[in-house]
Amino acid sequence: MRPLAEALRSRGVVVCVGPGGVGKTTLAAALALQGAALGRNSLVCTIDPARRLASALGLAELGNLARPISAAELRAADIRLAAPVEAMMLDMKQSWDELIARSAPPQQRDRILANRFYQSLSSALAGSQEYIALEKLWELHASGKHQLVVLDTPPTAHARDFLDAPARVIDFLGTDTAKWLLKPALRGAKLGFRLVGLGGNLISRTLSGIVGGQTLADLAAFLLAMSSLNDEFQERARAVSALLASEETVVVLVTGPAAERREEAVRFHQSLLEQHLNVAAVVVNQVHAGVGPEEAAASTRLPEPLRGKLERTISEANSLAQADAHGVRVLREAVAPTPLLTVPRFPGEVHDLGALWRAGAYLVADATPRETLAAAAAAPGA
Ligand SMILES: Nc1ncnc2c1ncn2[C@@H]1O[C@H](COP(=O)(O)OP(=O)(O)OP(=O)(O)O)[C@@H](O)[C@H]1O
Ligand SMILES: [Mg+2]
Question: Sorting pLDDT into bands at 50, 70 and 90, what band is 367?
Fold first, then answer.
């Protein structure tokens, strides 16, 4: 059985990671559909999906609400599932608000929610987007409503940026800076001024690195309000880390076939392994398929100049396919023994349920689908 089919059948969490624009959101949705086809009650949690993809999934707005993908739409696309499938769009701001509302004592809650620093937290605090996505994942998984949760992630150039987020929250909260700031003895109106007054010393330099343009006074007020949450946060961040590292979770690294993506993918893969994560597969998406000999033969029946034009197009397509097939071979060796799967580049975008289904089939099918065979046929020495 293909490694991802195995993961979809047996694991509780699949996290799709990778650089920008490679197809993480698309393949996360495709995997949830395949999970449901394999009989698992599935959920895909998307981040910032393209509008047409969101509408195909039945998602009109953000709001952390999971909604069933319409049974009628699935039938219309001839997709038969053995279990229900739901989709949601992660709302970062709402997730942070919910986290604060859940963890803060009532008297601190409003103070935190109204704080200017808190309000720009998602952009100001390094890794907070990543952190909240993982935190939401933990919550979705813990709720036990779905047997399989597929998490899409924000684009990250480095695997560490994403999967390290809980560890960084723990690290930051454990630093002397944070402890010093959060020490209840320091509570008081003067703290903000004292911080600002510290000028160029280590603490304020560390802090400016973290908060960017925000004023230290705002940050001080925020951290004071948050001090009551420190233990809660650390505990939760540890639980999130533990879920990621557990047998329940697998990571799928999505990348593209272009040569410049290759080194990046190898580094990304290496860093996932260093973090002891279970990498189920590297998926090279949007691989140029090339034109098989049967299809190419059709051009011989055409009159000139059509025939010449078509032959040039076919030859260009086959050069692209050969370059991609070479890249895939090199990458496959570099990431071995992690399995590498390919998904061809479809004509047009992958925005409807039918296309999502076809893309997903490449990740779980036992037989090599036709497009991949065509690419292999076009490759030299294949
Ligand atoms: N196999 C494919 N063939 C053709 N188009 C594809 C394929 N996979 C994805 N796409 C298209 O590529 C675009 C980017 O895909 P997607 O949004 O899933 O990438 P992403 O990695 O989530 O991007 P971001 O990092 O910006 O979140 C979309 O328009 C999608 O329809
Ligand atoms: Mg995306």
Answer: low
